[in-house]
Design goal:
Length: 279
C-alpha cells in the first residue's frame, strides 16, 4: 500500500495521522490570519497617528522614543490588535455555531482554531506580556496609571478566563470533527492527541522556525499560553460523553491543497516581512 493510500484509509491509525496533518495545517492557517489581522490593525492605527516603526517577520518595532508616546496614542495603537482579534474571534464563534458545525468538511475545524488563536492573542497575550512588561501590558499600565498591581491582577484574571474558555470550547472541538470512528469515547485519547497536541506542538515549532532568528520572547510565550486553552479543553473532551457527529461517515483525506496554500501564505509572509516594512 502506498503512503498516500495509507493516509486515506479508514483504519483508526490512518485517520489519526490524517487528522494530525490536517489540524496542523489549519492551526497554521488560522494563526497566520489572526496574527496578520492583529499586526495589520496595529500598524494601521500607528500610521493613522503618525507613529513610525518597522513591521518585521516576528513583530513590530516602533522607532519613536519612549517620551514621545502619549496616553491616547498608547491605548489606541496597542489596543487595536486585541480589539480586531476579539471581533474576529466572535465572528468565528457565530459562524461556527450557527453555520458550520452541522456541515461536513474542514471549515468548522479551521474556525475553531481561529477562535482559539484570537482568544490567545487577547487573553493569553495579556497574561504573557505582563511577565515581560511590554506590548499588551502597556494597555492596563497606561489605562489605570496605578502601578503594577492592577496590571498583574488583570493578567491573572485573563489567564483564568483563558482556562474557562478552553473548558467550554470542548463541545465545539468535538463537533468540529466528522469521523465517527475517532468520535467514539474509547478513541477519544487519539482524537485529542491528533487534534490538539500535535497541531499545537508541530504548528508552534513551524512558526518558530519561520520567525528565526528574530523570534521574540513575547511570541514564544504566546505559543506557551495556548496551553491555558488546550489543557482544560483536552480534559473536558476526554470526559465528555457527547459523541455525535455527521450521520454519514466520510473518508479521511490529507488536505494537500490547504497545505500548499499554507506554504504559499507563510512564504509570502517571510518574503515580504523579513526585510522589514517601514511605516
Amino acid at each position: 500500500m502506498s503512503a498516500l493510500s495509507a493516509l486515506s484509509s479508514d483504519h483508526p491509525a490512518s485517520k489519526t495521522k490524517v487528522l494530525a496533518l490536517n489540524s496542523t495545517i489549519l492551526y497554521l492557517l488560522a494563526y497566520l490570519l489572526v496574527q496578520g489581522a492583529y499586526q495589520a490593525a496595529t500598524v494601521g492605527m500607528a500610521r493613522r497617528l503618525s507613529i513610525p516603526g518597522i513591521w518585521g517577520v516576528s513583530g513590530i518595532h516602533f522607532t519613536i522614543a519612549d517620551p514621545q508616546w502619549w496616553r491616547i496614542g498608547v491605548l489606541a495603537v496597542y489596543g487595536a490588535g486585541p480589539a480586531v482579534c476579539a471581533l474576529l474571534g466572535l465572528g468565528a464563534v457565530l459562524w461556527f455555531w450557527f453555520g458550520a458545525r452541522q456541515q461536513p468538511g474542514l471549515l468548522k475545524l479551521w474556525l475553531l482554531w481561529v477562535v482559539l488563536h484570537a482568544c490567545n492573542l487577547v487573553l493569553g497575550a495579556l497574561a504573557a506580556d505582563t511577565l515581560l512588561e511590554n506590548w499588551a501590558w502597556y494597555l492596563p499600565s497606561w489605562l489605570f496609571l496605578a502601578g503594577n498591581i492592577p496590571n498583574i491582577a488583570l493578567a491573572v484574571v485573563a489567564a483564568l478566563l483563558q482556562v474557562v474558555v478552553g473548558y467550554f470550547a470542548a463541545i465545539g472541538f468535538l463537533q468540529s470533527h466528522d469521523s465517527i470512528t475517532l468520535m467514539q469515547f474509547d478513541n477519544r485519547p487519539q482524537l485529542i492527541r491528533a487534534g490538539l497536541w500535535a497541531p499545537w506542538l508541530l504548528g508552534s515549532l513551524a512558526l518558530a522556525v519561520l520567525k528565526l532568528p528574530d523570534l521574540t520572547q513575547n511570541e514564544l510565550l504566546h505559543f506557551l499560553t495556548m496551553a491555558l486553552l488546550l489543557l482544560p479543553l483536552a480534559l473536558h473532551s476526554r470526559r465528555e460523553l457527547f459523541d455525535q457527529t455527521l450521520p454519514r461517515s466520510r473518508k479521511s483525506y490529507p488536505a494537500w491543497e490547504l497545505a500548499a496554500l499554507t506554504l504559499l501564505v507563510a512564504g509570502a509572509w517571510w518574503w515580504v516581512l523579513t526585510p522589514g516594512l517601514r511605516f
